[in-house]
Write a structure and sequence with these properties.
- Helix content is 35%, strand content 14%.
- The chain has 14 helices and 13 strands.
- The chain has helices at residues 28-34, 52-59, 76-84, 102-107, 120-135, 138-146, 175-188, 201-216, 230-236, 256-261, 279-288, 326-345, 357-360, 376-379; strands at residues 7-10, 16-20, 38-43, 65-68, 89-92, 111-113, 167-171, 191-195, 224-226, 239-242, 267-270, 293-296, 315-317.
- The mean pLDDT is 96.
- Its EC number is 1.1.1.29.
- GO terms for molecular function: glyoxylate reductase (NADPH) activity; hydroxypyruvate reductase (NADH) activity; NAD binding.
- Belongs to the D-isomer specific 2-hydroxyacid dehydrogenase family.
């Protein structure tokens, strides 16, 4: 017999049974579900990652929907179990859904929710923070200070890179990449070079206008260039931030050959997906080029790092916290809950999953819609007319 899973129950008499595989930040998401006749069961197991068997036990034989996490393996086994239990909805508390077999969900008629639109600025801020921390060697200096090694100012102590007037490179100029570019340009008056399959007209117009503003105030204007290739960005930029989607074309996008193209004192930042960097090659490059630095929020084999990376002083590594601001994480929990609730209630799908402000306004009732269902078209779900 399977070991019972520990849970916390809200609104025990609710008509619709919804399971959350983890406790999530905030309380609004709980209230939204319980106020709409849902019995909410939150898993309280002391495990970072639940197994498939754990989640099967949570689903049981009667479950209308599940809120889950990016670390869980959602495939045929779980989706067929959810269907048998009467469920129609699963939502990641994440914008990504690499952990989800969408084809399996489609076969079982399960709507897949995610949470875009709420983490753009927070993720961009973390990428900018990693850029500064790596360029100015802040983590190295912090460790040095805490170890009691500082005995006075020295001319060469932790000399890093100046950002002002340098070139920031962005690979993938979507919402997050563009937000990051603006922060680096406004904050440090950096010039921009970017590569994307699609022209980022809004970003280009912003840089042009900001450059004109600086010039009008007697300062050196910033510039922009849309690169014809990713390699052009790697060769020219002083700081490079990766913001691509993860698919077959972007797996190991950064490999030994492309690392070799970069400047010896370049800074490389990744807050997108771990496998876009060949981490073994990166360790070798860091070891051979001590003034090359990286800032990493994601890793190829999470939660693990490739051997040697943890020992690299020229690497700043943080545990996948790009979306970890209070406002964003509470918003993600709200959107995930509303995806599941909306499907249970038969609501249509919101027309623009990136325009989620109406769902996050705590002073007003959220629209009667699912904020974001990635397989809405495959399931033939109606779109909101609001």
């Amino acid at each position: 017999m399977a070991k019972p899973i520990s849970i916390e129950v809200w609104n025990p008499s609710g008509k619709y049974r919804v399971v959350s595989t983890k406790s999530m930040p905030g309380t609004r998401w709980i209230k939204l579900l319980t106020d709409n006749d849902c019995r909410l069961e939150i898993c309280t197991e002391k495990k970072t990652i639940l197994s498939v068997d754990d989640i099967l036990a949570l689903i049981g034989d009667h479950c209308h929907g599940v809120i889950g996490q990016l670390t869980e393996d959602w495939g045929e086994v779980l989706f067929s179990a959810l269907k048998r239990a009467g469920g129609t909805a699963f939502s990641n508390m994440a914008v990504g859904y690499n952990n989800v077999d969408v084809d399996a969900a489609n076969r079982n008629g399960i709507a897949i929710g995610n949470t875009p639109g709420v983490l753009t600025e927070t993720t961009a801020e973390l990428a900018a923070s990693l850029s500064v921390a790596a360029a100015r060697r802040i983590v190295e200096a912090d460790q040095f200070m805490r170890a009691g090694l500082y005995d006075g100012w020295l001319p060469h102590l932790f000399v890093g890179n100046l950002l002002k007037g340098q070139t920031v490179g962005v690979i993938g100029a979507g919402r997050i990449g563009s937000a990051y570019a603006r922060m680096m340009i406004e904050g440090f008056k950096m010039n921009l070079i970017y590569f994307d399959l699609y022209q980022s007209t809004r970003l280009e117009k912003f840089v042009t206008a900001y450059g004109q503003f600086l010039k009008a105030n007697g300062e050196q204007p910033v510039t922009w260039k849309r690169a014809s290739s990713m390699e052009e960005v790697l060769r020219e930029a002083d700081v490079i931030s990766l913001h691509p989607v993860l698919d077959k074309t972007t797996y190991h996008l950064i490999n030994p050959e492309r690392l070799a193209m970069m400047k010896k004192e370049a800074v490389l930042v990744n807050a997108s997906r771990g496998p876009v960097i060949d981490e073994v090659a990166l360790v070798e490059h860091l070891r051979a080029n001590p003034m090359f630095r990286v800032g990493l929020d994601v890793f190829e084999d999470e939660p693990y790092m490739k051997p040697g990376l943890a020992e690299m002083k020229n690497a700043v590594v943080v545990p996948h916290i790009a979306s970890a601001s209070k406002w964003t994480r509470e918003g993600m929990a709200t959107l995930a809950a509303l995806n599941v609730l909306g499907k249970i209630k038969g609501y249509p799908v919101w027309g623009n999953p990136n325009a989620v402000e109406p769902f996050l306004d705590e002073k007003a009732a959220p629209p009667p819609a699912c904020p974001s269902i990635v397989n809405a078209k495959q399931l033939g779900l109606p779109s909101s007319k609001l």
